[in-house]
Amino acid sequence: MRSRIKGTAVAAILLAGAAGVGSGIGSQATAAPADQGKVKNVIYLLGDGMGRTHVTAARQRYYGADGLLNMEKMPAVGQVGTYALEKNSGQPGAADFHPNLVTDSASAATAWSSGVKTYNAALGVDAKGTVVPTVMEQAHAAGLATGNVSTAEITDATPAGQMSHALARGCQGPSYSTGSCQDLAITGSELPTSDIRVTPIADQIARNNTADVILGGGLSRFDAADETALKDSGYTVLGSPTSQTVATKTDLAAASGKKVFALFNKGNLTIEKFKHDNPAAPEAQEPTVADMTSKAIDLLKAKSNGTGKGFYLQVEGALIDKRSHANDAAQTLDEVKAFDDAVKVALDFAKADGHTLVIVTADHECAGFNIIEHGSFTNAEADVPPVNKDSGNAANNSTPLRTANQAKDPSRTAFAPATFRTADDPAGVTDGSPQASLWLTYLSGNHTGADVPVFAYGPGSSALEGEIQNTDLFGIVRHALSLDVSGTPAKVASKTALSGSTKVKAGQKAKIVVTVTPAAATGSVKILDKGKVVRTVNLSGGKAVVKLKLAKGKHRITAAYAGSTSYNASASGSLSVRVR
Amino acid sequence: MKNAIAVALAALALSACSTAAPEGGGAAAPGASTPSPVVMTSFPDLPTPTGDPELPGIATSAPAAGAVGHIPGPFDDRFALARLRFDGSQVTGALDITSDVSDLLELQVLAGFYDAKGRLIGQNRFTHHLDEDTHHDSGPPSEHERFTIAVPAGLRGKAVSAAVGVPVLVNE
């Protein structure tokens, strides 16, 4: 299936963990009893697409209006800003800062994993395409045990944000394709296919050893070569990528070892509602997210006991988002409940352990989920939205005035709320009936820009209180795991120089030599003509040689080194080239 | 196992990493006294792709003349093909995602074209790439994608059948 050439050199960039951006630590002045003590482990649970209303609606449905989900019982509560960036934007505060107010899961995952804002679809790279290390990579490098659990394909954005670096989240594998992996808006021209940023995410995960325990879906993304690579790296592989045999919860229960790789579905895991309704179906053999969390904690605890160091585990309840995209409230609420059951597993461990920080949050809100008054209806997709012109009192008017159907899909004219019984409703009240007390609507089928809730328990949890940005989560986790107090080196300055042809005959190519020092610098260099990118090339031994065919006239060539996890970016002076 | 491959390590190391002992025998796994890599930027056992992906069954998927066959691929349990037509100059059809209701991020449909003896004589592709700048489906998340794949120039009149398969498929 793949067409590849052997012979890629390994370039392993060492910890330059001071990604430095967005790593602020909030005040820890509020000292609840659970907030005291030293953190040894961090369990980070992420409900994909889980906004505040998702939490409230699930609470009301399963525990009643006066009840609480497990995550709501955690003592520290805050909210998280989630905005992303446009492509090629600078970071907040930079002159070229261009925010995008609604994030996707990839940009959000990069924010908390690497401490930088980036563009939607980017994983482990900033908005200009520079590779940034993740906190899970840093934890692994520091000797902590690491785990990554998801109910999505393990190559999907949230888990991949900790274990890969890709220009485009669609570059998942099993195969490279130009359309899904390259992004010319970032790089100007196609990157060599050996570049990590266009290497399929499955190939990266199978080879970079970032997570010791990998549990989730997405077996179709992996192939026989990946299975070989995993086993060569010491993983116990449950099921088989080679034969496309999925692992089962029975396999998982029996698993042991310091490194375990198990995927339970070829795609995303199956929604809980289907498994409940179809207990004899093969999909019912998939573990729940709580099952996976429990096993991951057991495996990581056993490994960390052997090293004397702690562990870092990320858990994603992915299907909250996917079912919200579908505006399926019944399945969405079941997935929130399943995710909250995993939160309980983590909390029970943390309470017994005493040295574990548990963080529960979301990457973004999905679909404008809302609880509306009994008997009312939704506006956004209605055929005729309520007018915002008040003929009786002009003070009530808004601008601009709505004069027509503004639904994105004009055909969507009969959008009714979903109704659900809650724990407080009398017996006999059924889901879908007008008598059910929980009336739910959606604003859209896509993400929204609302802040998301964050809950925390354990030592250091007060850092999560108040209003934070998703990039702050990177610094909070790094601090909790003491990854920022070990003399983490700053990046080294680089210098970029240009040499080459200054006079060229028309029709001939101009040879341009780019030299970046120190020579150990890796990454890419953009070649620009009068400020416009004309070529992007990778460095080899600190050098890159390009031959440019230029039009007649004068050209002002410059080079810009993008930097790397170890070296700062730098730019050359200009080289004048005249083509006669 | 991969000793023949040069290992290029940048010079920065975290002192706290020096005792990290890898369990696996991967090529980039350092010994106990060497610093651990943080970001691995390439992999010695991974062949470098030279182009868009192939499907192994393309050479043996020729249907009867005038028909459109199916080339097996890794995502066949995630979609249904419909309205497949081949008119000698192009193959058309539609693909409905059956696994998820969410935006279709990436799709590539590979078409093989065959002569009267069932021999593969050419191929072409349809690519869907969802990008905020270049292509964004408005309205509800998309589950349906139509495709048209032309017979390569020079093969028209020679190709009598086609087959299609999906090597790339990513939903959000």
TrEMBL record, chain A:
Annotated InterPro entries: Alkaline_phosphatase (IPR001952), Alkaline_phosphatase_AS (IPR018299), Alkaline_phosphatase_core_sf (IPR017850), Big_3_5 (IPR032109), Ig-like_fold (IPR013783)
Cofactor annotation: Zn(2+); Mg(2+)
Ranges of biased composition (kind: Polar residues): 392-408
Keyword Zinc: yes
Stretch forming the signal peptide: 1-31
Coiled coil stretches, renumbered: none
GO molecular function annotations of the record: alkaline phosphatase activity
Enzyme Commission number(s): 3.1.3.1
Keyword Nucleus: no
Family annotation (PROSITE patterns): ALKALINE_PHOSPHATASE
Region (Disordered): 392-412
Similarity section: Belongs to the alkaline phosphatase family.
PANTHER family: ALKALINE PHOSPHATASE
Protein name, entry field: Alkaline phosphatase
Source organism per UniProt: Nocardioides ginsengisoli
Automatic annotation (TrEMBL), chain B:
Protein name per the record: Uncharacterized protein
Organism: Nocardioides ginsengisoli
Record PROSITE patterns: PROKAR_LIPOPROTEIN (PS51257)
Leader sequence segment: 1-20
Residue segments, region Disordered: 43-63
Keyword terms, alphabetized: Signal
